[in-house]
Amino acid sequence: MMNQDKRLEVIMQTLEKNHTLTLQEIMKLTGASRDTVRRDIVKLSDSDLVKRNYGGISLPHTFRYVDDFLSRTDEMTAVKQVIAQAAAKLVQEQQQLFLDVSTTINCIPAYLPKIEQGLVLTNSLDIADQLLRKTELSVRLIGGVYQQKRRGTNDSNALRDLLSYRSEITFISAVGLTTDGVYYAFEDDVAFKQQLADQSQQVVLVIDHTRIGMRHNFRALGLEKLDYLVTDQSLPDELARQLDDAKVRVIVTDKAKK
Fold this sequence. Notes:
Elements: H1 4-18, E1 20-22, H2 23-30, H3 34-46, E2 51-53, E3 56-58, H4 69-73, H5 77-88, E4 97-99, E5 119-122, H6 125-134, E6 138-141, H7 156-162, E7 167-172, E8 176-178, E9 181-184, H8 188-198, E10 200-206, E11 218-221, E12 228-231, H9 237-245, E13 249-252, H10 254-257
Parallel strand pairs: 4-5, 4-7, 5-6, 7-10, 10-12, 12-13
Antiparallel strand pairs: 1-3, 2-3, 8-9, 9-11
Helix pairs in contact: 7-8
């Protein structure tokens, strides 16, 4: 049985590699009970060595990276498709849409209703390609420098181009959602997502359950900026309560309810 100093050392070494750890992962890692692990977390948090979040801990004040777009495309494909299908049902005839760069939003074009007229704005090469091949919709690709790893753009040129448009419904994703708001990995996401939210009548956040309770490098939006959340599993009680207070309508996919 490890003593506390040894447990804390093991926890921090693993956290440096994985960036986040759940309570269950720490229990398995150290062989300690839930109550003991909670005391260890409190000690680390009080020493400002970790940041507590829903269900676990993460490193504080460190820049964390996300894998590039193509490497994430094949992860949890079935879940992303179910979420995308539910999100696409929110689209109505002749609405002007914005579809942001995201591996989950990348699944939405396949489930859009058969609409003959309408304009879709996007900053995603892959989404634009799908829309042109599979729908009759007009497509406007936002200008800017397109990055290979992200398969899209949200640089300053894209932000300026975005100012010319308004959307009736905007679909965004995120790397984290907590009671504090919506989080992203890159600083240029902040201004871009804020502008998207300001220029859209409705903002729909689509994320899978692995992003719930996760903080990341940059907070871009408060919960009050969202109109819908579409996800695949039920939410923690406190997050659900705060979303309800912010008048965010939550859609949990049918597959997740079974």
